[in-house]
Amino acid sequence: MRSVELFTGAGGLAIGTSNAGFRHEAVIEWDKNACSTMRHNKASGTYPVSDWPIYEMNVADFDYSTIRGQIDLLGGGPPCQPFSIGGKHRGQNDERNMFPEVFRAIRELKPRAILIENVKGLLRQSFSSYFKYIRLQLEYPEIVRREGESLIDHLSRLRQHQTAGSHHGLHYRIVARLLNAANYGVAQKRERVFIVGFRSDVEQSWSFPEQTHSLDALLWSQWKTGNYWERHNILRKSRPNPSNGLMPRIVHVKSSFIPPALKPWKTIRDAISALPDPASDICSTIPNHRLNPGARTYKGHTGSPLDEPAKTLKAGGHGVPGGENMLVKDDGAVRYFTVRESARLQTFPDNYIFQGSWTESMRQLGNAVPVKLAGIVASEIRRVLSG
Fold first, then answer.
1. To pair with 145 at 20 to 30 A between CA atoms, which of 77, 158, 279, 283?
2. Per-domain residue ranges of the chain
3. What is the pTM of this model?
C-alpha cells in the first residue's frame, strides 16, 4: 500500500508504518539534522529507510501533483510545540502550527486513510475549540477557510455542514484517542494523541487497538511472584525499594489471587539490560552508546527508576530536559541515557544510527513516535484498508 509521510522527523512513525506494510512515495522533513539521520541510514541500506524518497524541505512548499496514483495512507506528526504542555501554549496562533498543511495535503492527495500523532497538550481545555476545529476540518477538508474568515466563523460553517446531514465531496470518518505507549509494550510512559480517519468510501468499521500491557501485571511479576527479578538475575537482597507512589498499588496487587490478564509493562531494565555499561571500554564499538557526563537531580528532575518504564523522553525548546532523560541506577546515582538507550526506549532498531551531537540526537528522539506503537496502530489501519 502506498503512503506519504509529512513532518517525518527522525523517522519513528515512518518506520512503524513501513513495518505495517506501507510503501512511502514521499518522506518530507525540513530539519537538516533529522534528514541527515535518515539519509545516513538510507545510504547504509538500513531497512526500511533504504527505499525512502526523502525530501528535505518545508511541507508548505511540496507539490503533491508530482505524486501519481492512489495514496492509501497520509501520515505525520505536525510540530507539537504549539500545543506542548512544556511549550509556550500559543496553539493555533503559533507560527509553527502546521495543521493547515495537513488539511491541504488531504485535499490534494485524497488518501484512503489518515494517521496523525500529536502531544497530549492538544487536549488541554484552552485548546478545546481548536481541537474540535481540527476534527471537523479533517472530516470535511474541502470546506476551506475563506480569505479574511476568522477561525471561529469557519468552525461555525463546518458545524453547520456537519449537522446538515448531507455530505457531498471529500469526507472522512475521524476517531481520536489518547494512547500511552507503555500500554502497548514500549518501555516508556509516553502519552500521545492519535487521530485516525478513513475516507467515506472505506466502509469497514475501525477502532483503536486495545492495550496489551499493564502496570498491575508488572507489579504482580515484581512483588507477587518475583518472576521479574529472577528473569534479570537480581538477588532478593539486591532488589531496589519500589517508588513510594506505587506502594498502595503494590499492596492491592499483592492481596489479589487472580493474576492480571495483560502482559507486564516493559521497564528500562528490560529495554537496555543487554547493552554494556556506557562507561566501559567496549561501548566504543556500539554506535550512539557514549556516556554524556554532568547529570544531576534537582526539584522536578529526578530521573527514571530502572525497574519502571521511563518517563516521556522530551526534546526541549532550550536543550534536552535533564529529568526526563536521566536514569536512576540501583545505587540511587543518576546518569543521562545514551542515545542508543533512548533509541531502545523509542523502539528504534539497533542498526538505526542517529547523526549529530548527543543533544541533537536526543532532540530527534524526543520528537519521535515510538516505532512499535506506530506499527501497531498502522497495522490495524492496513487491515481495514485490505478489507
1. 77
2. 2-211+369-385, 213-350
3. 0.92
Q: What is the pLDDT of residues 209-253, one digit of tens each?
A: 999 999 999 999 999 999 999 999 999 998 988 888 899 999 999
User: pLDDT tens digits, residue range 124-169?
Assistant: 888 888 899 999 999 999 999 999 998 889 999 999 988 887 778 8
How far is CA 302 from its chain centroid?
Answer: 23
Question: Amino acid identity of 270?
Answer: D
